[in-house]
Amino acid sequence: MEITTTSWILAFIASFVLGISKAGIKGIAVIIITLMALSFGAKASTGLLVPLFVLGDIFAVVYYNKHTRWHYIRRFLPWMMAGVILGVLIGNGLPEKTFKIGMVIVILGSVLMMSWWDIRKSKTVPTHWSFAGFMGIMAGITTMIGNLAGAFSNIFFLAMRLPKNEFIGTAAWLFFIINLFKLPFHILVWETITLDTLVINLKLVPFVVLGLF
């Protein structure tokens, strides 16, 4: 894989921002996804990012572990896994141009969802199981196609009125598990994680660590 100097610079910046996001700064994932897609292409970038996300997740899990609320993970995780599988099926075999359009839809949809939640006057907590189901499935689809599950998972956790540290700790474990769950699909089905991409990951790891601290 031939990578230009510009692409490397964008990837270094994206990796640094990824580290910052895993340290607890939310709402900046769109920057990471966009920069990596510009550097390596839409679909290829999804596979490149997952090992880096796992690395960042490990830090977040260790640091915020005591704040984790497993009850909410158990409610959300099965639906999210189902969404990941749907995302694999939707994205498998799509040409790059179509996949890129799908990623743009995911990015715009995520931004609109969070904006809608922020400006809502009434934030009554839905108690029906279908709320967790819908949000979980959409989070799974968007994390597989665009590595952007934050909008749907964040709305779910915010609706549960989780305090900041519990929010971060619960989300950290959720995404650590889901990113590990995504690995075999990227390796065996989409083939977006290979030895070549792992070599690239190794070069980006120092920038993730720098962002974490």
| Share of helical residues | over 70%
Percentage of residues in strands: under 5%
Q: How large, in whole angstroms, is the Cα Rg? A: 16 Å
Count every helix, treating DSSP H or I runs of 4 or more residues as helices. 9
What does this structure look like?
- 80% of the residues lie in helices and 0% in strands.
- Helix 4 (70-91) crosses helix 6 and helix 6 packs antiparallel against helix 7.
- The chain starts with a helix and ends with a helix.
- The radius of gyration is 16 Å and the shape is globular.
- The chain has one domain (5-212).
- The model has no long low-confidence stretch (mean pLDDT 89).
- The longest helix has 26 residues, at 164-189.
- The chain is an all-alpha fold and 213 residues long.
Structural features:
globular; 9 helices; 213 residues; 80% helix
Provide a concise account of the structure shown.
The protein has helices at residues 5-22, 29-40, 42-64, 70-91, 96-119, 129-146, 150-159, 164-189, 195-212. It is mainly alpha-helical.
List the helices and strands and how they pair.
Layout: H1 5-22, H2 29-40, H3 42-64, H4 70-91, H5 96-119, H6 129-146, H7 150-159, H8 164-189, H9 195-212
Helix pairs in contact: 1-2, 1-3, 1-9, 2-3, 3-8, 3-9, 4-6, 4-8, 5-7, 6-7
